[in-house]
Amino acid sequence: MADKQALNIVKMKKMKADGIPLTMITAYDYPSARLAEEAGIDIILVGDSLGNVVLGYDTTLPVTLDDMVYHTRSVVRGAHNTFIVADMPFMTYHGSIDESLRGVRRLMQEGRAHAVKVEGGVEICETVKQIVSAGVPVLGHIGLTPQSVNTIGGYRIQGKDPADAQRLMDEAKALEAAGAFAVVLELVTEEVAEAISRAISIPTIGIGAGRYTDGQVLVYHDVLRYASPYREKRFVKTYADIGTQIREGITQYVQEVKQRAFPDESHIFKADETVLESLYGTASKGAK
Length: 288
What we know:
eight-stranded parallel beta barrel, 12 helices, elongated, TIM Barrel
């Protein structure tokens, strides 16, 4: 979309006030980002989910800051007119504020991101304040936080009892007070996600959080079923099955090469007779 203009955090807040849902998708490289921008996506998240869907890890924990800078830079090159958020990877924002800001600086200066995302609630709010004070927009992330999966007992739905619901509400309000421009709610019960969305002035972006958040985010590879084997997820809707198309396309390529059906006459380049004469002495000797 050549005439597309990137959103900013002021426009996002107005979209919440006007009841216009935000659309977000992950992307990890130039072609994915370019296609997402051409499709009209509002926000691209360069998620540390790249560890699972691109780098082949079982969790997001091994993803490094170097990984995030590299992939963010690739995404930015593909989507010049889209607001791009980069994940702060595991343990890069829980130490000193100086260490956290060094990571933020790399994602903004080297990766060219427009904002960073951090997982957690009250315990990281002071860091969020410091990052925002340095002039960097911050997207919060509560509910199921993959970087903390080992301490929250696995991939469990959040907000299923009153105490947990109150915890999530308190975390969302604390992130808003700390200056976050929006907050992702992951695997949160629909009722709690709706209550949080009504209680705070910044946009909520849901993933497995029901119908009443201010926006939705999904992983690129889930939207397009771009994986093998693909693991079904209840909160995901598949819009295209490119994984099967890719496998079938490569299978056909392999078969045609084995059968010498590719390349055929339409894929080759002919030399004139003078070239053949220089190689074989006469054109007739080179003819097969």
